[in-house]
Design a protein that fits this description.
The structure is a homodimer. With about 210 residues, chain A is of the alpha+beta class. Chain A has two domains: about 5-90, Jelly Rolls (Sandwich); about 115-205, Orthogonal Bundle (Arc Repressor Mutant, subunit A), CATH 1.10.10.10. Helices cover about 40% and strands about 25% of the residues of chain A. Chain A is built from six helices and ten strands; from the N terminus they run E-E-E-E-E-E-E-H-H-H-E-H-H-E-E-H. Chain A has helices spanning about 80-90, 95-120, 120-140, 155-160, 165-175, 195-200, and strands at about 5-10, 15, 25-30, 30-35, 45-50, 70, 75-80, 145-150, 180-185, 185-190. Chain A has a four-stranded antiparallel β-sheet. Chain A has a three-stranded antiparallel β-sheet with strand order 1-7-3. In chain A, helix 1 (about 80-90) packs across helix 2. The radius of gyration of chain A is 17 Å and the shape is globular. The first copy, chain A, starts with a strand and ends in an 11-residue tail after the last helix. Chains A and B meet through strand 5 and helix 2 of A and strand 5 and helix 2 of B. The structure holds a DNA duplex (30 and 30 nucleotides).
DNA sequence: CGTTAATTTGAGACCATTCAATTTCGGTGG
DNA sequence: CCACCGAAATTGAATGGTCTCAAATTAACG
């Protein structure tokens, strides 16, 4: 399948809202997130994406991007022209199936994020985001001894959880004080997985890892 | 295509979280919504669905439901066995394309809801939900003179916007006082579409109606 | 009509925000 | 290697939007 390898610098945009879409990208290295900006300058991060994941599969059929995709500390991606992906999907049903499942799981994650920002308090919100990220990173082998790379700044974490940076800071301190996590620099260690899940009311069903 | 016509009573569950899925349903009459319950009894409504829409297309490939689907004031749906839908999709690429687009737009709506509950204040949240619903209802001809059927109770509206019922009530009053909407019984009239959109910071791009 | 569900109102408390200042950290050049 | 710099993290204090709880009013329904 034809693809182009692309490098993105720190905080670079991979897709911009309103742009006509032409291709889909898989992250090869680094992290990215989807986000929307509001007029007052505030930002909502909608999902975080890790290597091996598509960040914009919807570009396969939707002609205009409805949100931004931004990478975090520089990333590398494989960009595939829309037509190449579509024709492969039509030729090989198992590819189509995989793509569709990916889309469906994406949607499931979005639903859980609605619940997260809509109904959980600040501790649970942040804990939930960490649980999700830990599990997804584990599935691609990027967690070692309950420790993984956590590239988000506290401001970005705030934008992902619908909180302010200040309150995110205080909430993280609260989680640390309780011995749930350790967060230094860009490295996060889950000290007590069970209690973290408990605080987050985390149920991994929505990730559909078994499918 | 084989399907069963099903009737659902007031507040009846069409799909339950954790259940093994077997089929997909299209709403023929009435409204439904997707929701998740938290342990403390609080509920987050994730999306609202109107006639002609699939409520659980993800059941085509995901084997376990990750959320509940509940109808509002009684509804009627056409239930299609998973296999029938899948084999039709494989036979006829244009059907598959339509199904995939539907899934993608669904996901786009979820993303916008994340933004809504994550970053907008109570007035904007409710206004935004109303704008979205009005536009979608208009596209199937259910809006007349800027008036449409609004079946949600204030408690359900609260669960959809991540607010409490009390605060939803006060916010609705505020929108009424400003002459933006009229809401009596189960009938909603948009009195000033432009200003309502303004309050909501509504941009219909994410609905992808042109695709 | 009677009964329950839904809406409305009031008052007080609290979680999260805002704004501003300070400290720490990571990177860069002298 | 250290001084410097900007970004990120942290702290404090005051404000405010939303919540909680409880009661009263209105609407819906058999």
């Amino acid at each position: 399948m034809p693809f182009t390898r692309k490098r993105f610098g720190k905080d670079a945009y991979m897709v911009r809202e309103g742009e006509r879409t032409t291709d889909c990208s898989v992250i090869l290295r680094g992290f990215a997130f989807r986000q929307k900006m509001l007029r007052d300058g505030s930002r909502q991060i909608i999902s975080i994406h890790i290597p091996t994941e598509f960040v914009d599969l919807q570009n396969g059929l939707l002609l205009v991007a409805d949100h931004n995709v931004q990478c975090i500390n520089g990333a590398e991606a494989a960009t595939i022209p829309r037509e190449a992906l579509l024709s492969l999907a039509i030729e090989r049903p198992e590819v189509l199936r995989a793509i569709w499942i990916d889309t469906l799981i994406d949607a499931s994650v979005f639903r859980e994020w609605v619940v997260n920002v809509g109904r959980r308090d600040s501790r649970a919100r942040i804990a939930h985001l960490l649980c999700e990220l830990a599990l997804r990173l584990r599935s691609i082998g990027l967690v070692h001894d309950d420790r993984f790379d956590f590239p988000l700044t506290q401001e970005q974490l705030a934008d992902a959880t619908g909180l302010t940076a200040v309150h995110t800071n205080r909430t993280l301190q609260s989680l640390r004080k309780d011995g749930l996590i350790q967060l230094t620099g860009r490295s996060l260690t889950v000290l007590d997985w069970d209690r973290l899940c408990e605080v987050a009311e985390f149920d991994e069903l929505y990730l559909h890892h078994s499918v």
